[in-house]
Structures are given as structure tokens and as C-alpha cells.
Design brief:
globular, four-stranded antiparallel beta sheet, five-stranded antiparallel beta sheet
């Protein structure tokens, strides 16, 4: 198959956590976590072949219950983290764990190759527990890996941020919201710029930056959204730029040097927006997913690292300059039938992304060829 039609994979239960295998840059890999109350939960490792549109899957048991968030090490392709919850002795317990993927040759490793859509199952071995992130009170909202690959992680619960050293499995330092406030963290993102010394957090409708060297706030934006902020992401190529989304159905672009107002507001979803993320290679491409069951791809060249598009030194073109590309909605993807909680770009192919809706449907899609050629040519 050589077309760009969507490819659909079905989990056996609900899910809301998906992540590209960040350290894998040669093949298209995704981890997907399940969220089931009635059966054992799993992590599915999906390998997508763009030429054949086949998916090869490996399924690993997740013994710590429902998976709420999943993220991957940028350095070690076999390390990932999950935030989870499970009922023990009639009590709901929350936690987060770092896991290692077992070697493929180990006994009990279930592998199945399916022509899609896939709804089959494969019994697999359990993930290997590397480290439990203990000491948190309440749900752990985010586990963030150091963007540069250092052996540090950040975990965030309702009111505290913990900076961990993976080698010693100990907390280096902590930060907390002021005890006087009733607000709580919802999510966070590690800034890949500023020498990786900052983490940005969403605190209900506001944003707060933290300096990890002092564990003190370094900037904030009050009332950045009208309702709960659900996700945020840093532009990978422009160090002061980032994007946010939330329950007010808006996506907002910001410059941390001037936070009096967003640089741009886009309202193309009709319900809560759960996820927003920049393309890792071409930062004018921005994906978002929502409870309106849609995934939307936008092109925002005016705020990208190449606002004027492709630069050509040809003298003839210089004498007849082409107008810069305009910000626009590129495509709306409507293959889902439930809330789309997460979307993730491939780290191996900049033109491929995957989305996950609550009913367990994974959809692998492509940037339209017209938009791809517009960027490349």
C-alpha cells in the first residue's frame, strides 16, 4: 500500500495514554496503555510499517492497575513510565513506576502480527519494575523525562513537584504550591531549552514556570485560559514559544518573554481539548485532540522557526519574492467515535502521528501530501 489512508488498531479495553517510543528514531513505534477495571491492564508496543500498513504488536502485562499517563525515556528505548491507580483492600491507591521492556527472546513474550484493523490479543510477559516513585500524596499527574537524556525525572502530583535521580532512586529536591491556595497541578512539561533548568506546570487556569536549580517559581501567567488547562507543549525550535489548550475549547500560543496576552488563539474544536503537541521536526505543524472526537492538524508558520517558509537563493526568485505562507487549518481527522485523549508524533517519521480515543481505538495517520510538499519544496 502506498496511500496515506488511516490505519486503525483496537485495544481490548479502554485507554487514554499513548506515547511514541522517543529513543527510537529508525522505526515507527508507539506505546499504548489500557485503563480497565474488569481485567488486567496492559502496555501495547506497536510497530508500524508505513509501506505495508501492517502493525506488529507486543503486549506486556502492567501489574499496577489502570494507566493514566505514559511517557518514554529519550535515551533508553526500553525504559518507560506510567502513572496508575488500582484498588487494594477496598482502597484506591495511586502511584507511578519506571518500567523496563523485557528482552524479546524471554519466555512468555507474546508477539502477534495482524492485518488491520486488529482486535486480537496476545498474552505477554509483565513489564519489569525498575523504580517506584514513592512519597507522593494523591494521583501523580505527570512523569517527565529529562529532555537531554540525563538520568533525572520530574514527577508531579496535585500539590508537589519531585526531582528524582534515577541512578540512586532518590528525590533530589521538591517544590510545592503555597499551602494557602486550594489550586492544584494538572499537568506539566519539561522545557527542552534554557539548559533544561525549567519545568512548566498547569495550575487550573494558570501557568507557572519552575527553576529546577532552586525549585522556586520563575514566572507565571494568571488566567491563561478561561477554564481548566489540559495540556501544554514547548516549541522544539524556538526557545521562548509554547502552546496550551483547555476546556475553553481554545489553543493558545505564547511567548514567555511577554505574557500579557497570547500571540494567537485558535478555536477549531467544539469541546474540551485534551492534548496539543508540536511536530518535533517542523514546528509549524501542531496537532490537537478533543472530546469532540476529532484530531486537528494546523499549520502556524507565522510563529515557527521558519516564518517565511523555504528560503531559496536563486536570483530569479529573489527578484520575484513569494508571499509567506499563512496560518491555517490543514486537516480534520474524524476516524474516532469517542473522546480523543492523546495524540503523539512519531519520532522516526515527521509525517506520521497516532491518536487514541477512550474506547481503545488507535488511529495512525499522515500529514497530507500537499502540506508535506509545501514544507519541503
Amino acid at each position: 500500500m502506498d496511500d496515506d489512508s488511516p490505519v486503525i488498531y483496537g485495544l481490548e479495553s479502554q485507554g487514554r495514554a499513548i506515547s511514541a517510543r522517543t529513543a527510537e528514531t529508525d522505526e515507527i513505534h508507539y506505546f499504548v496503555g489500557t485503563q480497565s477495571l474488569r481485567s488486567d491492564n496492559q502496555v501495547h508496543l506497536l510497530e508500524f510499517d508505513d509501506e505495508t500498513h501492517y502493525i506488529e504488536k507486543k503486549v506486556f502485562g502492567h501489574p499496577n492497575g489502570e494507566i493514566w499517563q505514559l511517557s518514554c525515556s529519550p535515551k533508553d528505548r526500553d525504559l518507560l513510565s506510567t502513572s496508575h491507580s488500582q484498588v487494594k483492600r477496598s482502597k484506591l491507591e495511586y502511584g507511578a513506576t519506571l518500567w523496563q521492556i523485557p528482552d524479546s527472546g524471554e519466555e512468555g513474550d507474546g508477539i502477534a502480527t495482524n492485518r488491520l484493523p486488529s482486535t486480537g490479543s496476545a498474552s505477554g510477559t509483565h513489564l519489569k519494575n525498575v523504580m517506584d516513585l514513592e512519597g507522593h500524596k494523591g494521583p501523580i499527574k505527570s512523569v517527565l523525562w529529562h529532555p537531554g537524556g540525563d538520568n533525572q525525572i520530574v514527577s508531579i502530583d496535585d500539590h508537589t513537584i519531585h526531582l528524582w535521580d534515577i541512578d540512586s532512586a532518590k528525590v533530589i529536591d521538591t517544590a510545592s504550591l503555597e499551602s494557602k491556595t486550594l489550586q492544584s497541578f494538572y499537568t506539566g512539561k519539561w522545557n527542552p531549552h534554557q539548559n533544561c533548568h525549567q519545568v512548566m506546570t498547569a495550575v487550573e487556569t494558570s501557568l507557572k514556570g519552575w527553576d529546577l536549580r532552586t525549585m522556586k517559581p520563575c514566572w507565571d501567567i494568571e488566567h491563561a485560559h478561561q477554564q481548566q488547562i489540559r495540556d501544554l507543549d514547548f516549541n522544539p525550535n524556538r526557545q521562548y514559544y509554547f502552546v496550551t489548550c483547555g476546556d475553553d475549547c481554545s489553543i493558545r500560543f505564547w511567548d514567555v518573554r511577554n505574557t500579557s496576552a497570547p500571540l494567537q488563539i485558535r478555536k477549531q474544536h467544539s469541546h474540551w481539548i485534551w492534548c496539543v503537541c508540536y511536530n518535533h521536526f517542523h514546528d509549524q505543524l501542531v496537532l490537537s485532540s478533543s472530546s469532540d472526537s476529532n484530531v486537528i492538524l494546523c499549520s502556524i508558520p507565522s510563529l515557527s522557526s521558519e516564518p517565511l517558509g523555504h528560503i531559496d537563493d536563486d536570483e530569479e526568485k529573489e527578484s520575484s519574492p513569494v508571499s509567506p505562507p499563512k496560518d491555517c487549518l490543514v486537516s480534520t481527522y474524524d476516524e474516532h467515535e469517542d473522546s480523543v485523549y492523546s495524540v503523539a508524533w512519531s519520532t522516526a517519521d515527521p509525517w506520521i502521528f497516532a491518536s487514541l480515543s477512550y474506547d481503545g481505538r488507535v488511529v495512525i495517520n499522515h500529514v497530507p501530501r500537499k502540506e508535506k510538499f509545501k514544507i519541503l519544496l
